[in-house]
């Protein structure tokens, strides 16, 4: 297995009136090449799980394994060589006061041995230009432009490229199209599909949009109240509809799904 979560539990404000059980003994495995989409209402535990996988948070109990290595005690920067991540906020994944090529150099160096050498060589610049051309946004001709001048969709496309062009073992997408307008969201969704397929990246994607969750990937899981309550893969996933997902939630939980955003996309 490329990724394994084993009996992972996380509780916030334990022992207080504000105690919140975010994850309840989560077990999840991803084989190499899996593209798993995660759906769930607010508070289901989706982002907490992503933060525990990335090392931003540590589980109270349980363990996290990547490529057969127990990484539970490794901090976020120590897991960066294994993981690429794109966040919901287009501002989160890039440095606005640095140029496009400087941002790409930072991402490139993340997986290399620590060095004082930061300069962008001609060979590396050509590599960056070639990678940017795959986005079809003309950014390959704007290497020296400050990233803060880019639109939200352009920044998110750049963040996606920065997270993937070093071919990480695991790609985490945390509602990475939710803050974009519909046209830009569609662009980044299509880029995501192309890049994941091109590099055969093992991917975990959180989304509020059920239609997007059904459209992308080979597996789907639904979370609620810190638990994985439903999973579908292969032909079963391909035959699912938004209406069927809502029916499954009501059958399992005995209540309606809480988020209109998930239904409306």
UniProtKB/TrEMBL annotation:
What is one Pfam family matched by this protein? ABC_tran
What are the recorded GO MF terms, alphabetically? Answer: ATP binding; ATP hydrolysis activity
Keyword Plastid on entry: no
| Bilayer topology | Peripheral membrane protein
Query: Keyword set for this entry?
Result: ATP-binding, Cell membrane, Membrane, Nucleotide-binding, Transport
Localization per record: Cell membrane
Q: Which residues form the ABC transporter domain?
A: 3-250
Q: Which InterPro entries match?
A: AAA+_ATPase (IPR003593), ABC_transporter-like_ATP-bd (IPR003439), ABC_transporter-like_CS (IPR017871), ABC_transporter_ATP-bind (IPR050166), P-loop_NTPase (IPR027417)
Where is it predominantly found? membrane
- What cellular component terms from Gene Ontology apply here? plasma membrane
Does this UniProt record's set of keywords contain Endoplasmic reticulum? no
Tell me the protein's name.
Answer: Putative ABC transport system ATP-binding protein
Q: Which organism is it from?
A: Parageobacillus thermantarcticus
The major lineage groups are: Bacteria, Bacillati, Bacillota, Bacilli, Bacillales
